[in-house]
Write a structure and sequence with these properties.
- Helices cover 71% and strands 0% of the residues.
- It is mainly alpha-helical.
- Helix 1 crosses helix 3.
Amino acid sequence: MELKKEARVLDAVYITTRYPDSIVGDLTPSEYFELEDAEECIRCAELILKKAGTFLNI
């Protein structure tokens, strides 16, 4: 199972969610991102966690 795409999705939002002042303009992360963005990030994180759990036998 290749997880590069999922890792890229999470990597792309890391800075803007961790450091809100990195967003151009006066937007907060909750104004900048849409529900669909959050759902995709959750899906990607779940896939990565599932693969890690399989790899670690947990």
